[in-house]
Amino acid sequence: MSARPTVSREEFDALFEAVRTWGRWDRADRGAWNRVTGDHVRRAVGVVRSGVVVPMALPWNTRSGPDNRKPALHHMTDLGDVEGPEPTTHKDFIAADYHGKGVTHLDALSHIAYAGLLYDGRPARENVDAAGARFGAVAALGPLVTRGVLLDLPAVLGVPWLEPGHPVRAGDVRAAEEALGVTIGEGDAVLLRSGHVRRRAELGAWDPATASAGFHVDAVPLLAERGVALLGGDGDSDVRPSPVEGVHSPVHALAVAAMGVPLLDNLDLEALAGATAEAGRYEFLLVVAPLNVPGGTGSPVNPVAVL
Amino acid sequence: MSARPTVSREEFDALFEAVRTWGRWDRADRGAWNRVTGDHVRRAVGVVRSGVVVPMALPWNTRSGPDNRKPALHHMTDLGDVEGPEPTTHKDFIAADYHGKGVTHLDALSHIAYAGLLYDGRPARENVDAAGARFGAVAALGPLVTRGVLLDLPAVLGVPWLEPGHPVRAGDVRAAEEALGVTIGEGDAVLLRSGHVRRRAELGAWDPATASAGFHVDAVPLLAERGVALLGGDGDSDVRPSPVEGVHSPVHALAVAAMGVPLLDNLDLEALAGATAEAGRYEFLLVVAPLNVPGGTGSPVNPVAVL
Amino acid sequence: MSARPTVSREEFDALFEAVRTWGRWDRADRGAWNRVTGDHVRRAVGVVRSGVVVPMALPWNTRSGPDNRKPALHHMTDLGDVEGPEPTTHKDFIAADYHGKGVTHLDALSHIAYAGLLYDGRPARENVDAAGARFGAVAALGPLVTRGVLLDLPAVLGVPWLEPGHPVRAGDVRAAEEALGVTIGEGDAVLLRSGHVRRRAELGAWDPATASAGFHVDAVPLLAERGVALLGGDGDSDVRPSPVEGVHSPVHALAVAAMGVPLLDNLDLEALAGATAEAGRYEFLLVVAPLNVPGGTGSPVNPVAVL
Amino acid sequence: MSARPTVSREEFDALFEAVRTWGRWDRADRGAWNRVTGDHVRRAVGVVRSGVVVPMALPWNTRSGPDNRKPALHHMTDLGDVEGPEPTTHKDFIAADYHGKGVTHLDALSHIAYAGLLYDGRPARENVDAAGARFGAVAALGPLVTRGVLLDLPAVLGVPWLEPGHPVRAGDVRAAEEALGVTIGEGDAVLLRSGHVRRRAELGAWDPATASAGFHVDAVPLLAERGVALLGGDGDSDVRPSPVEGVHSPVHALAVAAMGVPLLDNLDLEALAGATAEAGRYEFLLVVAPLNVPGGTGSPVNPVAVL
Predict the structure, then answer these.
(1) Residues C105, C252: contact at Cβ < 8 Å?
(2) Which residues, 6 or more positions from A81, have their beta carbon under 8 angstroms from its beta carbon?
(3) Rounded Cα gap, residues D78 and C100, in angstroms
(4) Which of A189, B103, B122, C281 has the fewest Cβ atoms surrounding its Cβ within 10 A?
(5) Which of A70, A76, A77 sits opposite D71 (nearest CB)?
(6) Residues B224-260, buried b or exposed e (16+ Cβ, 10 A)?
(7) Which parts of C132-169 fold into alpha helices (H)?
């Protein structure tokens, strides 16, 4: 693990200022997804070669554990004995307080406020209450279809996984682009693989709020410059512990609140890592289709890569 | 509305026998999705022209009503006052007993049993219990990427919507293909628009369990012959009241239990109807990405069309 | 139904001022339950004669309807097939957004704020957030054991029920006391029977938010003077439509926010009416045992009368 | 900790046979609560002296932990910003899959089946399905008002708590009766204090499914002979690990399935221990008022002692 520099609050605030895109879009609550036009969609579709389809959602996890403090619910509500008689039906109920470490989900723009402000400078207090988010709701985002790029750091480094706490810095992003033969461009979705899902399978669960690999804030200006539309990974994008004083999730603050870039948290990228390695190509068509929740701050999702 | 013939139970059972594909697939619990190979995916990707992206999920509906007996739940669980201090976070909880008429969802193969048998002849009692479905779970399906075809019946007929109770028969499907310039082929997803979402918006809600437009069972052999992978619509595919004696959801029984064809229920096809009409093309890339629920009988989804 | 006078906002505010007991109790978030001492408990126990036990909770209602907009949930989570093998266990999950008209429940002091203030003048914004209520939580109330008095208005008036919209005024309370041979005293729980549960059983459900029998605000000073600890009924204590301009639930505001008197809503008083009539006595030992929810604004309950 | 003898399955089955009361009651699904007549209620009321009221429910626990695998839910659904304007209202949603170790609850007779049979010999498969329990539902029990007896074992033994795994045997029950000056009689509710709540507060949580103090099966014939109506404790009545081969919860099987005695699990008896010690009397009026859930296998409760 490289040494972790301490970033002061002043440095962070300057960074926030440098990358923010407030006031840029007419449809502000779509944030960086405004970058993705029909042209981007067509180009993304054009990267498909084999037609291999790879999902990225972790199994819906109903067991509590160090990385699943608020287990999702799954109840069978009809076992052929409620409705009937022909055909008989089986039904179930699902539920989740999905933000956290246990459920693969999308963070919409209303999920994060920094210094009281949501993306585009909208005051959080005026825009989010018990009835939901009036700005930055997941329903305003809709689905995203764009090119995805996998930054498979363990593949680049020749390790099974990054250790929890490992920061991914600007130089690491550039090195990965070169090693994997892909260049992040405007409107892309960048998915960071730490290998934490493999590590959990082999070594058992730990509390990723305490230690997880993820982007260091110094990688964010590069991603901002490239005009990414979406960030995601098998963690929650933030390296933990946070390198920024007094800010527990600085990449969340920069991406969501400053740049209007939604986040994909808790992906399972193991199958995608295998598929991209086999194809020798780290780009793919990505489709993310959040549930249409008015006022929602995000959604459980099952993002799909098509290679 | 055409007259509704009565189908006897014997006729229905013969139909069931005629269209069933039990024993055909190694991965039986993927059912008709086994038809969709990499070739189909590439061909589906190849129909994209404009890059216009159209979602199909109804808004997550938390209000009870005649078409929403089990309202979905949406609770804000953090309003910037629970986690903190920087960034502050907004979080929410969603929940749904999603089978029914209120939530856009996918029916997996475990959802329906006819005469006690799930698809592939698997006994329902041995395969589904309070712990979930061991055969035909939504997690076994995974995502579907294929060509979608919209059968926009109101467009074909020059009406704003089909009246509730209107049956769509084999001849109507063929007429729609001809009128819309599209031919249903193997691995396709066929989406039936009745215009009921528009009708509800203009006239108010009613109970679609009592009356809704949908496929008559006599359309099913044609769809079976074409090798469809998925059926869906702005109803639940079944015309109601049922034309089959003693079978409340005959198209469900035929599609899911006999043919292994999952269903998409309660789509909002209004935007897609506009986009297809504007493009003059009724085919598109379709992506359906159910949540990865082990043992789940289906999933809320937000299917995406790319034109 | 007697004519409904209109009460101006000024008159209401004067009433609020007149009955409020802010600053009176050390343990302010127990409100009027501070009135109930060991002496009162012993006296309440002393009214028991036959030992007949009468519960008052409506059945947990999972069906939506005009009086059940947010149906409660009840899911079986183990049918002997999850845990095992011996003994096998059956388990279930219950859930409710219980304020409303469908669930028998207690309103704690944090449930209601008038002009931004909770009971004892505590600002609502500072005391209630997404983490729950810091003042006036149901957990601070604990259980109530006191004398209950049933004001069985239909019995007094010789009618099967009061019609929805019927206001119960100060004179009606006094007349009921006389007719039923009971005098409301300090620390008592007063339960108002309108007979709406019987009416619903015979005539079907309606929306009680639109019309229900209940106390007119002019009955509140009398109840305040008597020092009641708890009000409840088979409605939600408020006559609806509200007789007070701009205040949708004036008895809630007066009882909870001004007087610190919790409310019992949506009781089933039919069995109690039968038992009290048979005994010829309208007083009983009452036990209300809310769930111990820290931060909760109330609780589903099953109040118990012992005659 | 005393040595734990192993009980064979044959011995257990003989015990089951010996204590079972099948066929005894007309209202079989009230089980042993049939023992509690108006006379018992009056006698129970008669033990009240001081009027001190003591609740026994643990706080509603929304945090996962080794003793709370399925955390309860508590969501604020209105923070004065949904309904309004005057008065403003605060509302919340509660939910629990309450069987387990985290929630104070009552086990109804439908909760447990031994060798496929519920209490009274009713086949579990025919009586419990996804729609709920048709026999032995909590709604059939209703509330219980009876005399409660606290077996405060740590007080008897002069220790702060029983260690997890400590079995309470017939001799221990008799010794406790003598030491505490109370004799268990027909219709009584017997509450066993192990002091585990205090231990948890002082030493932290552990998994009580692995080790907890509770009744050894050899104490059950004594309790059966005395005609108890209810058993409960600050564990779940069963000593764990189980002393019976192949039966994970033998006291549950004996009490619920053989004797029709509901159980109170996960009580907080610390305050009651203090109050009984202070009074020097280990009997009290007990009121248990389960929610009125048709088909429910039990209920979260807040049992109340009145001393």
Answers:
(1) no
(2) A88, D129, D130, D131
(3) 12
(4) C281
(5) A70
(6) bebbbbbbbbbbbbbbbebbbeebbbbbbbbbbbbbb
(7) 138-141, 153-157
Which of these, C99, C95, C131, lies nearest to C112 by C-alpha position? Answer: C99
Within chain C, how many helices (H) and strands (E) appear? Answer: 10, 16
Tell me if B128 and A95 make a contact (CB, 8 A cut-off).
no
DSSP classification of residue B60:
P
Q: Is the ipTM of this complex over 0.95?
A: yes
DSSP states of D54-100 = EE-BPP---S-BTTBSS--EEEEEEESSSS-SSSEEEEEEEEE--TT
Please indicate whether, in this complex, the C-beta atoms of D64 and A82 are within 8 angstroms of each other: no
Per-residue model confidence as pLDDT tens digits over D265-301: 999 999 999 999 999 999 999 999 999 999 999 999 9
Q: Does C80 touch chain A (CB under 8 A)?
A: no
C45 vs C29: CA distance, rounded Å = 25
Q: CA nearest A95 in C: which residue? A: C95
- Paired strand residues for A120: none
**Which residue type, as a one-letter code, is found at position B13?**
D
CA angle A70, C110, D106 (to 5 degrees): 55
Using the Cβ of D82 and the Cβ atoms of chain B, whether some distance falls under 8 Å is answered with no
Type of residue numbered C173? V
CA separation for the pair D180, D176 (Å, rounded): 6
Banded model confidence at residue C5, pLDDT cuts 50, 70, 90: low
pTM above 0.90, yes or no: yes
A44 CB-near residues (< 8 Å, 6+ apart): A145, A146, A147, A148, A285, A286
Burial class (CB in 10 A: 0-12, 13-18, 19+), C119: buried
| Domain segments of chain C as ranges | 9-60+100-306
N residues, chain A = 307
CATH topology of domain B9-60+100-306: Glucose Oxidase; domain 1 (3.50.30)
Could you give the 3-state DSSP secondary structure of residue A118? Answer: coil
Structure-block tokens of residue A36: 């993705």
Q: Which two tokens stand for residue C163?
A: 């019609």
C-alpha D275/C-alpha A167 separation (Å) is 56
Cis peptide bond N-terminal to D241, omega within 30:
yes
Q: How many CB atoms lie within 10 A of CB B209?
A: 17
Length of chain D: 307
Our CA-based measurement puts residue B250 at a distance from the nearest CA of chain D, in whole angstroms, of: 23
List the chains bordering chain A where 3 or more Cβ pairs fall under 8 Å.
B, C, D
* pLDDT beyond 60 at D106: yes
Collapsed DSSP state (helix, strand, coil) of residue B78: strand
- Alpha-carbon dihedral A241, A242, A247, A250, rounded to 10 degrees: -130
Cis check: omega of the bond before C87, within 30 degrees of 0 = yes
Contact residues for D155 (Cβ-Cβ < 8 A; gap 6+): D179, D180, D193, D273, D277
Joined tokens for residue A147 = 């090119």
Cα–Cα distance between B180 and B112 in angstroms, integer? 32
